[in-house]
From TrEMBL:
It is found in: Cytoplasm. NCBIfam families: recf. Residues 252-264 have a biased composition (Gly residues). The gene is recF. It comes from Agromyces salentinus. Its main location: cytoplasm. This is DNA replication and repair protein RecF. ATP binds at residues 30-37. It comes from the Bacteria. Gene3D superfamilies: P-loop containing nucleotide triphosphate hydrolases, RecF/RecN/SMC, N-terminal domain. HAMAP family: RecF. Residues 241-251 have a biased composition (Low complexity). Residues 3-375 form the RecF/RecN/SMC N-terminal domain.
Amino acid sequence: MHVVRLSLTDYRNYARAELTLGPGTTVLVGRNGQGKTNLVESIGYLATLGSHRVSSDQALIRAGAEAAIVRALLAHAERELLVELQLNRTGANRAQLNRAPVKTRELPRYAHCVLFAPEDLAIVRGEPSVRRRLLDELLVQRTPRLAGVMSDYDRVLRQRNTLLKSARARGLAAEKLTTLDIWDERLVQLGSEIIDRRVALIDELAGPLASAYSSIVDADHAPALRPMLSIDGADPDADAVDAASGDEATGAGEGADGAAPGGSAGASTTAIRFAEALRVLRPKELERGVTLVGPHRDDVLLMLNGLPAKGYASHGESWSFALALRLASAELLRRDSSTGDPVLILDDVFAELDRARRERLASAIGGYEQVLVTAAVLEDVPERLVARVVRINAGQVLDESADDGDADA
């Protein structure tokens, strides 16, 4: 799959923008703050329904405008598809497919993209929520139906937390809160599917991750992933402030039968383990007014040379691990997608790499149908990738050329 044409209206710093693209590699060149990343961010949004830089859609709408519009003409083989998304300042976002209205959560079914950016260093060094998002975005691109499952889980989680807060305020004992059982059942049903899908995905990523890391670093540092499940006693958010409640969360491991993080607690199913963890922790949840176990509190432990990458890996190793995870994600999408390769986007990546790693990365991505690269300085990009250059300045696509002239033009 590749993007044939991208059109933006009132998106970020673009009043209007038109960009014609094609297969192969395109380098978007311009000084920092000119709008290069905004262009590729809009493509990434169609595939993941989110920005890699901000959590709110409001920041994507140009100042003074009520809505932003992203249109992309996608091509696979002989078929073309027009995907449109309207981000509204008030009210729900709207989407169209070939001019016919569709649910916004349907878009990842048609737009496949993997974007790597400097912010992805947080995959290794940041909070568990960053790693959860990495897995969930890939899951939704591979199985769009899961967007609905995740949305339903979030809704049930909010309602359950509201009930817990109300019970805490009224001083209700656990045995008197029978209505909580109804929400528990739904939470377990939805959450178990998310947990199982994530664990299966982590297993699938193992091989592609090792290959991608080796191709970038040219060394065997044994990169590995290990699920850390709150239903089995792990609680990566134990010392964090829970976003839903504003209260400090407690460790879910207290009373979770001592199961090892990511363990299977014997032959029990995920749903049984989840339900049991909720039962054991209900008194503590009532004390805190927040749900202490579930996929919203899980994590993935990233390992290098048998040690946690977070805290032990160098800056270069952390950068390479994050990049390898994105390349492994792209490989999985390429492997099972009926629309061909995902669009591969490298946003200001090459400036962070030494010359040897730049060349190895260029070799690793050379076979993808469409690669979009942003750079402040064209000389940072390996020559083999400079097939087509588009220059960006102050929210304007100035000109397009096949030469590698002054990057600050």
